[in-house]
C-alpha cells in the first residue's frame, strides 16, 4: 500500500472516530507492505498515526517498507525529528535492512526510451 494512501486512510479513520478499529485491523495483517515511504511530507497527524500502527504491530507481525530515500532523508517526510527517530526505531528493531543499490526501474526505462528516440 502506498504510504500516503495508508496515512490518508488513518486520518479519515481518526476523523470518523474509527481509528482504534482501523489500527487494530492493520495490526492483524500478517505482512504490511508500505511503498514509497519517505518521498512526500505527510499530513501533520500522519506520522503520529503511522507510528500507532507500527506500535500495534511491534513484535507481532512483519512490516516491509520500500523507499529510495535513506533514513536521514526521512526528516522531509517526518518533520518531527523525535517522531522520525521513533518510526525508524520501530521499523528496524529486530528487522533486516536490504539495500538493493539499484537504479529505479522507471528511471532506467525512461532513459532507454530517450536513447531509442535519440538514435532513431
UniProtKB/TrEMBL annotation:
InterPro entries: IstB_ATP-bd (IPR002611), P-loop_NTPase (IPR027417). Residues 4-110 form the IstB-like ATP-binding domain. This is Transposase. It comes from Streptomyces rimosus subsp. rimosus.
Amino acid at each position: 500500500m502506498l504510504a500516503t494512501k495508508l496515512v490518508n486512510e488513518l486520518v479519515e479513520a481518526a476523523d470518523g472516530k474509527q481509528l482504534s478499529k482501523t489500527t487494530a485491523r492493520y495490526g492483524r495483517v500478517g505482512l504490511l507492505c508500505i511503498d514509497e515511504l519517505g518521498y512526500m511530507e505527510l499530513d501533520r497527524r500522519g506520522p503520529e498515526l503511522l507510528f500507532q500502527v507500527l506500535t500495534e504491530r511491534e513484535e507481532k507481525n512483519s512490516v516491509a517498507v520500500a523507499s529510495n530515500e535513506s533514513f536521514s532523508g526521512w526528516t522531509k517526510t517526518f518533520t518531527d525529528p523525535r517522531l522520525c527517530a521513533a518510526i525508524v526505531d520501530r521499523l528496524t528493531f529486530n528487522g533486516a535492512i536490504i539495500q538493493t543499490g539499484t537504479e529505479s526501474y522507471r528511471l532506467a526505462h525512461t532513459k532507454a526510451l530517450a536513447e531509442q528516440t535519440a538514435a532513431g
